[in-house]
Amino acid sequence: MHYVKTVVPECGPQQEENLATVAREIADALDEFSTERRVISS
User: Fold this and answer.
1) How far apart are CA 25 and CA 7, in angstroms?
2) Model's pTM, two decimal places?
3) What pLDDT is recorded for position 5?
4) What is d(CA 10, CA 19) in angstroms, rounded to the nearest whole number?
5) How many CA atoms lie within 13 A of 22 on its CB side?
6) Contacts of 9 (CB under 8 A, 6+ apart)
7) How many CA atoms lie within 13 A of 2 on its CB side?
8) What is the pLDDT of residues 9-38, one digit of tens each?
9) Superkingdom of the source (predicted)?
10) Are the beta carbons of 18 and 8 closer than 8 angstroms?
């Protein structure tokens, strides 16, 4: 998961907010990936 390491910023006052945003982006990316795999396999 190198993606996470590059996106998560250094510790700061907005770290939690940034982590939440990153988590949503990762969830969206995983969802898109799994959706594409379902389309390809069907």
Assistant:
1) 10
2) 0.48
3) 56
4) 11
5) 15
6) 15, 18
7) 0
8) 565 667 778 888 989 999 999 998 888 878
9) Bacteria
10) yes
Q: Which pLDDT does position 36 carry in this prediction?
A: 81
Residue with structure tokens 């390809």?
40
Determine the Cα–Cα distance for residues 33 and 17; give it in Å rounded to an integer: 24
The position carrying tokens 């390491």 is: 5
Q: Which amino acid is at 42?
A: S
What gap in Å lies between CA 35 and CA 11, rounded to an integer?
33
Asked whether 8 and 26 are in contact (CB, 8 A), the reply is no
- The single-letter code of the amino acid at 16 is E
Gyration radius from the chain CA atoms: 14
